[in-house]
Amino acid sequence: MPKKILTGAAGALVVVAVVALYQLGVIDLPTQGSPRPDTGASAPPADGTSAGGSPDVEEALRWLEELDVVAETDPPGYDRSLFPHWSSGVRDGCTTRQVVLLRDGEDVEVDDDCQPVSGTWYSVYDGETLTEAGDLDIDHMVPLKEAWRSGASEWTTAERERFANDLDASPQLWAVSASSNRSKSDEDPGDWLPPLESFHCDYAVSWIEVKHVWELTVDQDEAESLREVLAGC
């Protein structure tokens, strides 16, 4: 029988408890993590919010200036299996994909295997509202092959696995319509932006944040496109 994931009240209680303990000096709140995080995939925010929490435009521009601009190459040997993804047992027996579907949907109900059987999802790339989990892809904001071309070819498999399952170090995973994700393929913002123009600013900021956190490079056309988008935000 489906079980409904309740997050609102529990999230509020967690926030209150953390703030109280911090004010009493019992705990310290975490600071910004180091680049290329070395922690494993973790649970989504307690309040069930979707991918986001991105910096503002000015900070994104500063981060963009800190990225190395390198002519893009295509190192041989790429294979998606070098980025093991959709790790199991991330939270309550759920895979990374299932956790993102739970996080980004509304009124999501799952079966005993944590597979969503009902719910509603809004695809920020194209503005579509979907009611079937099978109609959604979990998009890597920075595609795996783009990451490979931008420095991940030199990472260990363990580092690539953390990147491919990154739930909280950066806004890397998004539940979007399968059609929009497949239209994007492995393109960077110099070649592809979401069909929904109102999301372009958030997209550019999130893209930069992922590349900054994971110390990936950008090519010249990619950097210029990102600056152009942010100039209009």
Instruction: Tell me, rounded to a whole number, the average pLDDT.
Output: 83
Any idea what the radius of gyration is?
A: 18 Å
Secondary-structure class = alpha+beta
Shape: globular
**Beta-strand percentage?**
5-15%
Question: Largest sheet, described in full?
Answer: 4 strands, antiparallel
β-strand number: 6
Side by side, the strands of the main sheet go 1-2-3-4
State the helical fraction: 25-40%
List the helices and strands and how they pair.
Layout: E1 3-4, H1 8-23, H2 57-66, H3 96-104, E2 105-110, E3 116-122, E4 129-130, E5 136-140, H4 144-149, H5 157-164, E6 173-177, H6 178-184, H7 200-213, H8 220-231
Antiparallel strand pairs: 1-2, 2-3, 3-4, 5-6
Helix pairs in contact: 2-7
